[in-house]
Amino acid sequence: MAGFRSLARQVRDGQNDLALRRYSLRKCLERFAPYGHRATWDHLCRRAGFGPEDRSPDPARLTAALDELEAARAVWLAYETEFAHRRKQEKHDGLRRPGSVHDWHRLTWGGHGVAWCDDPHVHPAEPLADVLRRLIAALGREPGSRCPVCASADIVWKYDLAHEPSAGPVCTGCGIVVPQPVLAPGSLARARRPRTLVTV
User: Fold this and answer.
1) Which of 14, 57, 172, 181 could form a disulfide bond with 101, CB atoms 3.0-4.6 angstroms apart?
2) What domain of life is recorded for the organism (predicted)?
3) Cα 32 to Cα 69: distance, rounded to the nearest angstrom
């Protein structure tokens, strides 16, 4: 089974036919898809300017999509390296039981679903690398009351998500499932409260 870098080479190889290059880009998302496979594909297509069902997109647009994906992957790999080093140091210092950030990280190891978007058509519009930087920065700060990606305070609790955990806080602004460790207890409690419709 080809790895991410091998697939990326296939996307860039002008000797390959367009169908293989597009297929290889899709396969890259099996290795790294921050919003989940379908939402990440939708995001890359929108940002690069080709349709999700376009079977023969402009090769330059495919490469642009790959460039964005690789930039985000570099951000994530740097985070995972730093995380592994920090966890090793914590174990050395006697901290054997990891905290809530570690639980979240375990579910996103490898970068799949880091900023899960349950609706594949609702996701942040900014470059993937920028979104991951914001998310990673939030994991290193005290928990807050807003989405770490778009700063929206409108966060609702949703059940039956197509990802682990199967329920969690979802930002109505950008569509990500907000990692619980970045939200203060009061914000999580507000998100869990049932919403009432206001009638005029």
Assistant:
1) 181
2) Bacteria
3) 8
